[in-house]
Structures are given as structure tokens and as C-alpha cells.
Amino acid sequence: MSKKQLFTLEFPVRCSPTILYEFLASPAGLQEWFADKVDEWENVYSFSWNGGTPDKADVLDKEQDKFIRFHWQHSDKNEYFEFKIEKTEISNQTILVIKDFAEKNEIKDQSQLWGYQVKELFHRLGA
């Protein structure tokens, strides 16, 4: 059994949920900020970095303009990473919520890595 823990990060985004969802759920969008090359075939995404061997992730669940949840094929069956789009009630601001798993002593590093990735996403979005 995995010792990894679920952690959640939230990032306010100045962009519509529809546009943001395209960057989170389509191979072309993910290739803009998340991985060097992204392919999808029958709900299995293949992510490559620096020309290396692709990592494959299954889509566990998704809802247009709301969220997409992936499971790395090489990881524990209870682990996943998720991109969720929420709207705040008062200001109607769009929030990107990322859920992922990491060893307790690696959560800080993983959070920093996600922060870097999201910064690249915001750059691509012009947000």
C-alpha cells in the first residue's frame, strides 16, 4: 500500500472555465504547458518530456468545463491527479484546484513543481 498523501493546491485564474478546460483536458492544451508531447487514444493520455519514454495516464472521470481526473498507469490504484475548475460565489472568480498524491516529505517539492507548471499555464493563457 502506498504511503503517499493527497494534497490540494488552489490557483485563482483570470480566464473562462471553457478556455481553461481546453488547456487541462485536450492533448493540444496540455502540450502547451504540462508536457512536451501529449497524445490521447481511447481515454488514455500519453505524456512525454524531453523525448523520453511516455508516461501513460487513464482518464478516470471528467465533466466538460468542470474537471478531469487522471490515473498514472504506473501508480497505486487509489492515486490520481485532478484538475478541477471552481467559481467563487461572491466574486465569481475562476479557481483552478489541483489534487495530487506525494510522499509526505515530497509534498512541498511537488507543490513547487505544480506552481511552476501553473505559472507556465497562466503565461500560455495570457492570464
From TrEMBL:
This is START-like domain-containing protein. It holds the Pfam family START_2. Residues 1-127 form the START-like domain. InterPro entries: START-like_dom_sf, START_2. The lineage of its organism: Bacteria, Pseudomonadati, Bacteroidota, Chitinophagia, Chitinophagales. It comes from the Bacteria.
